[in-house]
Specification:
Largest sheet: 9 strands, antiparallel
Number of strands: 15
Number of helices: 4
Strand content: 35-45%
Order of helices and strands: HHHHEEEEEEEEEEEEEEE
Number of domains: 2
Helix content: 25-40%
Shape: elongated
Structural class: alpha+beta
Distance between the termini: 46 Å
Radius of gyration: 24 Å
Amino acid sequence: MTRLLASSNFARVGSNVTHADAFGAQLTRDVESRMKPRARARRALLARRNALIGKAATRTAAAIIADSRHDFALAFLKANGDRDRIARARNKTRRSMNRALSKHVPGYAGYRAAQKAFLADLRASRTTAVAGPLHQDLDVNLGDLLLSDDLDYQEFGAPFELFSQELWGDPAAEYDASFADPYSGLAVQNIRFEHHEDGWWVPADYNPQFWTYAVSVVGINYVVPRTGRLSCAAVLQNLYNQITSSVTDDYGFSHADTRADHAILIRLVRSGKWTVFDRNLVVAGVVSFGREFSYTQSDIQTTTPYTLSFTTSDVFLKGERIQILAGAHILYESHVDDMRVHVDSALIWQVKMLRVGMQD
């Protein structure tokens, strides 16, 4: 069962914390809805494994895996910190374990084939767009903010009135030093996502799927000056970005598939309803069947600001009080078996300006 965690400063600055609770509950339903096909595929994989590998074979596999972990622990000590020797010992132990599993565990080869097919289906499902009630289209460009001069806009810059830093989902964030600073407009996500799973033969301990959503935003209170459609734009500049993904093997029927989606966004709060206009900028992922590796990426340019803009289809009434926030979010998802995944994200954005006006 997914647990909901919220760490929000939003209520301290005049908003209603029930908005955050409602958003978090809806977000949980949205993500879990996206994960339903994957959960069905995972159950099918487990059923396939149980059909291929019976209880006696499972006990044999557990003994082989335990011996392999012991052998590597001894080799690790003998390596005395030498990275190359450790890598060679790990590869040697993994090959020896795979040979023993293939020889002594009937159905092991068939399960590994089913595992690879499962991960292929999992990755395919993640490329399918899922329409949700929270996320709407957002125009994103580089450079100057280009909006019609016919509209009467108000411009807002730091210091902003509102700020919020939130963490939702499964408790998979090992470290979180994210923050949103209304005085400077900084929206920072400094977070480590960890997923460690090595309990496949103990059903009560088996938890192969995690997700975590983190968001940092700053913004304003806004009183609608006249009836019409809301037109909003924001200027955000990335000051630093780095995402490092790594996987290590715990020995076993190992696989790992993890993904991190990073987006910039504008959030609109109206009468307790949160609507998010967002655009993905980075997708980072790791797929492994026991192989250990790590890589770092810094794909967001830092020299030119990004401009975000949208116009609502709904009409807003004169005198309505709404809230508009801008910043960034990151969504982690992982499916892991007998491996450990770390994703470290350091993402620093500055909201330089919000511009809001009305259209007929």
